[in-house]
Design brief:
alpha+beta, Aminopeptidase, seven-stranded mixed sheet
Amino acid sequence: MLALKGKYCYLRALEPEDLEFLYYVENDELVWEVSETVTPYSRFVLKQYLENSHRDIYDVKQLRLAIVSQNDQLAGFIDLFDFDPKNARVGVGIIVAEMFRGQGLAKEALAMITNYCFQKLNLHQVYANITEDNLASKKLFESQDFELFGVKKDWIFSEGKYKNELFYQKIKE
């Protein structure tokens, strides 16, 4: 049986009580660079998002799950995006709150969601887009056998300069 529960954390569907944490994450300008966000989100808009987050990945082409520590604290989110069932692939992104970093949650959450993609969604590949200077994310994805397959030159414009974005893939064995 495939479980979305590990030693350090578990993954669950979004709940209405996640609103304040979601508001904090989505309005953190430090992560706007990777989420391609340029304006803040209101609580109203995020509340509507949460109300519709139950929709099927085959319908909306994305899925966001909460990363919850073993003591039931919301620690972050893991997202599947650009779900493409025809070509059997999906993108993945992850964010863990600073106070939970370095505890193995991101590594375990990434392993669980990748297994979910391969075993339950029957996908052929999972990919990630990581800015070249994001050393923690590069280390995380490489630790889960994602391979670097390309560089998108000057892909992200942030803080007055262009950054390269790295394209990582994990292909189902």
